[in-house]
Amino acid sequence: MKHEAATLSLGxxxxxxxxQLFWQKWSPEAExxxxxxxxxxxAEHSGRYQYFAEHxxxxxxxxxxxxxxxxxxxDGTPGFVPDFSVFHDGVDQLLVRAKQDFPGLxxxxxxxxxxxxxxxxxLLEKQDKFAACVLSGPAVKAAEEPSAFLKIISGFLSRFFxxxxxxxxxxxxxxxxxxVVADYLADPLVYNGKMGARLAAEMLGNMxxxxxxxxxxxxxxxxxHGGKDSLAAxxxxxxxxxxxxxxxxxxxxxxxxxxxxxxxxxxxxxxxxMTDWLDKQLLAKKx
Length: 287
What we know:
Layout: E1 2-9, E2 20-27, E3 34-39, H1 50-58, E4 61-66, H2 85-101, E5 107-112, H3 114-126, E6 132-136, H4 148-160, E7 165-167, H5 178-186, E8 195-196, H6 197-213, E9 221-226, H7 235-243, E10 249-254, H8 267-286
Parallel strand pairs: 3-4, 3-5, 5-6, 6-9, 9-10
Antiparallel strand pairs: 1-2, 2-4, 7-8
């Protein structure tokens, strides 16, 4: 296994222009058959995906991941984002980097949780950049649907008090494995404070955007979700399955699993389901 870590800069057109984002790649010793662009979830960081990366390497994939603006080892303010497009800008830069290294290889987009929302909304503009996409527990619908009043209030707070903490996530909803929860709480690169009003409003706005425009997505799409996910409703994946235009799509809900399906006791089953499906898309592309 080869591992590389560095930083990349957001371009002058970004609303966080000049910010440095930490990124890393894991690649097999031999030439990979395809690339996986991994987009992590809210409050966490790319370093939590070592096991995920090793699984993918063993299947012949190289994995590229970054810490979003305001996350992990990247610049920015935890719990806040000036605009949701800043997350897309990071994906742009990581994709450029990956294509520089392996210009001829197909790229698979894999997004988890808020990273699933980032990925899904990114596809609305740039799905032609990818051979397929996997969404793990995507934050497309909130576990508790916000009221109209709450949406109005969140818009007000986002404008006038953008960094005011408004939402706290329960870390016990991350996994049924107590060690995963303990490690999550002890990880200095995981943000355990409240989500700010701007980020909360940006997420709500982009959930609405993907719900209204899901039909624009026609890329091969795999949706994986824990049936007992208390942080991002499984209905979000079911909604996408019902509304995307993709002729190749698959929805799999694991009845007993919590939010981080790649960190549950059954993670090997989930990861095999993912790479088996990706392998099929590669074969279909070659055929």
